[in-house]
Amino acid sequence: MIKKVSPHIVQNEPLIFERSSPGKRGYQLPELDVPNVDAEAALGRQNVRGEIEDFPEISEVEAIRHFTRLSTWNYAIDLGLYPLGSCTMKYNPRVNELVARIDGLAWAHPYQPEHLSQGCMEVIAALENALAVITGMDAVTLQPAAGAHGEFTGLLMIRALQEHRGNPRKKILVPDSAHGTNPATASMVGYAVENIESNDRGMVDMDRLSRHVTEDVAGLMITNPNTVGVFEQDIKRITGLLHEKGALVYMDGANMNALVGVARPSDFGIDVMHLNLHKTFSTPHGGGGPGSGAVAVRDILKPFLPGPRLKRESDRWTWDYDLPQSIGRVRSFYGNFGVLVRALAYIMAHGGDGLRRATLDALLNANYIRKKLEAHYEIAYQSPTMHECVFSDDRQARKGVRTGDIAKRLIDYGFHPYTVSFPLIVRGALMIEPTETESKRELDLFADAMISIAQEVEDNPELVLQAPHSTRTSRVDEVTAARKPILRWKSSVRSAQAAD
Amino acid sequence: MTYPENYKYTKEHEWVLVEGNTGTVGITDHAQQELGDIVYVDLPKVGATFDKGKSFGSVESVKAVSDIYSPVAGEVVAINDLLTQHPEKLNEDPHGAAWLIKLKLPSGGDLTELLSAEDYQKYIGE
Fold it and tell me: What is the pLDDT of residues A162-211, one digit of tens each?
């Protein structure tokens, strides 16, 4: 039987464990030229590790081919549009990678003395300053390793300030259009969470909010623009309402790509916020990290920032550990430094005008997609679109086709799916964020694909329900995978034994 | 699927059946349809007490995790063990075999603000 009938790029690939041939060696060692020692006698039996059971035994070239083939299965921003809403999957210029790899930065050791680390410290100082200018805030910490870590840091500071004022208070308010991690963060910091329902414009409902704002509220966590891609038009009234009762306002900066260079959160009353440097500021997002959730604060929170803090002493930088009110370190050393270098390079290369233009292009692209698709998909809210647009699958659902099915069909058209079924406040959400880096040509290809799928839903819904058709595996059984997960590979021998 | 007349319903899509001082609580057929295939049900321990309207557990589907809110106040006297091994039962028989918890109610329980079967079906637009 002929086993090889298609090029590798469309061939399926077994697990590396399944490629193993017992006893196979891809190396040869020279003869032992020292006396052979019995490890067990010399070290004691408990210190000797045996063979790793079922470790794959293959040659070097087989290992190389296995992983190279797998690498060709990836979809990446380098292949095309990646419209995963809320994730800001934009192209990150290669020059920033180059800068992050400069020897003196890439090989710096966190324990090297301060006088040999002045360059790295300058990078941190310059980036803190740039982010303070962009957000309009008074101080910045670069320690948090990602967005949720930034939220945690910010809320610890809110708690520290409220405690300092005499009462930590009990609650954090979170609108239902906020980022999904916000309630979990508030809970981790020991607060009860109260959910604020949005109104029919997709914004925080002022009446509902004002009923919740009491002296028990330590703060509000708001995402602006929120997860439906809408700017909170009442934001100044919202922050004013909270401030009147002595509460603070945290802004989740996950959607900062819609504001950089155009609006400063400090101007609309935000007290503390994080920035996802791995979304907005040139570190690839979605690779599993590392990220950076830099946190910016207003003056009143400055004493509580994580330590140590940079301090200028005559002509050099030094670390200041004498911070009696600090919430303490939140990350070993000084954050994910490589991400910080990329962010600074990105900001300096763009300059203020460039950053502003990137933001306006991100908004333009999202609005272009909205206009192209509005006739074919139900827009969730009529409010103006910022950097992303959210549709519902209402029209397609009448034919039995849901957002997840449309997303799978989109794979056949050569695009990564948009964000599916989120935010939860929109039934059957299709959340699309094109970012500023896409050309009109790419956006048109994407829009045409989406329009074509909408037509297929009308003419031949089965085609969409069975998609994808062009991939190695079609629909995987998500339900069984979640109900009866198999979390690790076991050899057939041991699986059989386990079954007995 | 029918919505039993002797159940009371919430706008958060739970139901409660009160018999004597015991309240049996579950989620509605509409809720399981919206959630899709349910893969995990997180229930409280026997002996835990909940106020009316407080979250007592969650239901996880392939799409989302949703809190479940207690339609009445009470103490948990039984949980439905069937669901730990067979969460799919919640898709198959949400108004019957796939009840979630049984609560001991303080003197009949407070059934105000709960919906009748007819009103609930109007609410969800069926």
Answer: 999 999 999 999 999 998 899 999 999 999 999 999 999 999 999 999 99
Complex ipTM tops 0.90: no
CA distance A410 to A444: 14
Cα–Cα distance measured from residue A309 to residue A112, given in angstroms and rounded to the nearest whole number: 17
Dihedral of CA A423/A425/A429/A433: which sign? negative
Together in a domain, A326 and A383: no
Residue tagged 């303070």 (tokens) = A132
What's at A205, amino acid-wise?
D
pLDDT category at A3 given cuts 50, 70, 90 is low
Domain of residue A18 covers: 8-71
* A478: chain B residues, CB-CB within 8 Å: 37, 62
Q: Do B40 and A483 touch (CB under 8 A)?
A: yes
Q: Is residue A460 part of a domain?
A: yes
CATH label, B8-123, candidates 3.40.50.720, 2.40.50.100, 3.30.450.40, 1.20.1250.20: 2.40.50.100
Report the alpha-carbon distance of residue A465 to residue A461 in Å, rounded. 6
Report d(CA A150, CA A189) in Å as an integer. 12
Which of A479, A480, A484 is the best mutation test for B, with the most CBs of B within 10 A?
A: A479
- Which has the minimum average pLDDT: A7-11, A117-121, B37-41? A7-11
Q: Which residues of A touch B62 (CB under 8 A)?
A: 478-479, 482
Per the structure, the count of domains in chain A is 3
3-state secondary structure chain B: CCCCCCCEECCCCEEEEEECCEEEEEECHHHHHHHCCEEEEECCCCCCEECCCCEEEEEEECCCEEEEECCCCEEEEEECCHHHHCCCHHHHCCCCCCCCEEEECHHHCCCCCCECHHHHHHHCCC
